[in-house]
Specification:
single chain; mainly alpha; elongated
């Protein structure tokens, strides 16, 4: 396994996943335009073609499959931070301290 390609694929996936999650969470209303923009950036196969071109080969290697894993990680991280941020803001407005359920 080429760790450089694996790290690059995962990092790019995390970045794109985080940007899509932020865009999707900040949208006031989920319209077909917002949904189409989110889906097209997630499933764009041009990223895999770019990886193949940069690697100098015509067949994608196994490390490229870490890109969707990075998408999932980035989307989950940003969504979790959005939920925690919203809960903290609601607690601050009500004058209560935020308590975790541990």
């Amino acid at each position: 396994m080429d760790w450089f390609v694996a790290a690059g694929s995962t990092s790019l996936g995390v970045l794109i996943g985080a940007l899509v999650a932020w865009f999707f969470n900040e949208a006031k209303e989920v319209t077909p335009k917002v949904l189409a923009a989110s889906i097209s950036s997630l499933v764009g196969s041009s990223v895999l073609a770019m990886f193949s071109f940069l690697a100098g080969g015509s067949v994608p290697t196994h490390e490229y499959w870490l890109y969707p894993v990075g998408l999932l990680i980035g989307f989950a991280i940003v969504t979790t931070f959005e939920i925690l941020s919203e809960r903290t803001e609601i607690a601050a407005r009500s004058g209560r301290k935020f308590k975790s359920r541990t």
